[in-house]
Amino acid sequence: MRRNRFNSSSIPAVQAKKIALRQVKFALICVFVLFLLAMLPAHAQLQKTINIGNGGDLGSSLDQLGQKMIQAQAEFKKGAQAFKNKDFYRAERIWLSAARDGYARAQFFLGVLYETASNDRYKAIHWYLRAAEQGDRDAQHNLGLAYARGLGVKKNIPRAIKWWRTAGLKGNSDSQYNLGIIYATGASGVHQNFKEAERWWLLAAASGDALAQYNLGAMYANGVVGKQSYCEAARWWLKSQSNGFIQANIALENLGRRVDVLNCR
Is residue 259 part of a domain? Predict the structure, then answer.
């Protein structure tokens, strides 16, 4: 599954890796995470209506649906394996058939294929939108990213926020993180709102997002969402550290010169 992050400098570019909440002792690090593609087990959802009227047999229909779902899953996984083996033509052929039948996950992965393998952003957007409209949170996230960066569509931050919010409310931690960035920086005319940024980062942090945990620590160390609390900063940086974010080590070392971090636990 393709995952990506957004930072304040991704409008209009994506090169910078830092922003600062305040020009004080602790920096709010917003690291741009490269695209990752993790081939997850397919759970294709058949969208076709079962006709049980006009003498239709419910048991028979359910049996047929079950068989179709098993077959769809098997075919979907074949497409994933083909993609992994860089046999993009075969992956496209398999996923395109499923996508046209309305399978949201096939639509999402087909969008990933077009964006990453053939660099056809217009086709990618088409299938992301199809999947997003069916409620696929990963497609919603990628669609938000496209609008935020103006890739395949005209840049539109309000639409990016709309799709990220939709995905974030469904538990997509990358969307939650990106919303935190938008509100913390006041990017592209969005009203800067640290409390709203905190809200979204807390959701992402609860899912174990190390960057969101780090940024929360920076907020509390700087006192931008209430009273300054080095101990609260330490708690979040320790969590970020435990989740592998190296920058948290530096923050904790600097913080250790001011407070006893061990007594904050």
Answer: no
Report pLDDT digits (tens) over 42-82: 222 222 222 323 444 555 555 655 566 667 677 788 899 99
Lowest-pLDDT choice from 34-48, 89-103, 241-255:
34-48
Q: Tell whether 84 is covered by a domain.
A: yes
- Which residues, at least 6 apart from 112, have a Cβ–Cβ distance to it below 8 Å? 1, 2, 37, 124, 142
Buried b (16+ CB within 10 A) or exposed e, 238-263: bbbbebebebbeebbeebeeeeebee
In eight-state DSSP terms, residue 188 is G
CA distance to 109, 118, 233, per residue, from 80 (Å)? 9, 16, 41
Helix, strand or coil for residue 232? helix
Instruction: Please tell me whether the overall predicted TM-score, pTM, comes out greater than 0.90 for this model.
Output: no
Cβ contact 107:136 at 8 Å? yes
Number of domains in the chain: 1
Query: At 18, phi and psi to the nearest 5?
Result: -135, 150
Q: pLDDT of 23-42, one tens digit each?
A: 222 344 433 222 222 222 22
Q: At what angle do helices 58-84 and 104-116 cross, to 10 degrees?
A: 20
Q: Is residue 106 part of a domain?
A: yes
